[in-house]
Specification:
The chain is an alpha+beta fold. 33% of the residues lie in helices and 27% in strands. The termini are far apart.
Length: 144
């Protein structure tokens, strides 16, 4: 597989359809973004939405968000998902590598991500790439 990673520069029906196919593979409860949400995401200067292509087909996606706090400039990697048909072929690694490179270019000193414990292969990949498992509690407050 000759995968190439691209930054999504504009919303498109192709991108909407790919996300509608990919995101439920990550979590069936995820609602795929509509055109307006996708446009807002792509134009947010803190966010880069990456797509992995094999030929003309989108086979994976990841999002990297860069933000600054009083202590750090950090990157957070979100929603890394590779189509089931393309798993085990280096697509996830290529996406995460591209996210890390964006973080470096933007002056980040830390890159963070989280993954469900049940995603054994993804967790193994992240640890193989040098990510360290943290002893931390993760809290969420739904606002909807």
């Amino acid at each position: 597989m000759a995968v190439r990673i691209e930054v999504a520069e504009q919303p498109s029906k192709e991108l909407e359809a790919a996300l509608a196919e990919l995101l439920p593979q990550l979590n069936p409860a995820i609602v795929s973004p509509d055109a307006a949400r996708l446009a807002k995401l792509i134009t947010d200067p803190a966010v880069k939405l990456l797509v992995a292509r094999d030929g003309d087909s989108i086979v994976g996606t990841a999002t990297v968000i860069v933000y600054t706090s009083p202590a750090w400039t950090k990157a957070r990697i979100e929603d890394v998902v590779v189509d089931q048909s393309a798993r085990g072929q280096g697509v996830g690694r290529a996406l995460v590598d591209a996210c890390v490179e964006i973080a470096r270019e933007r002056g980040c000193t830390i890159v963070e991500l989280q993954s469900k414990r049940s995603r054994v292969e993804a967790n193994r990949l992240y640890q193989d790439m040098g990510f360290e498992l943290r002893d931390s509690n993760f809290y969420r407050l739904p606002l909807r």
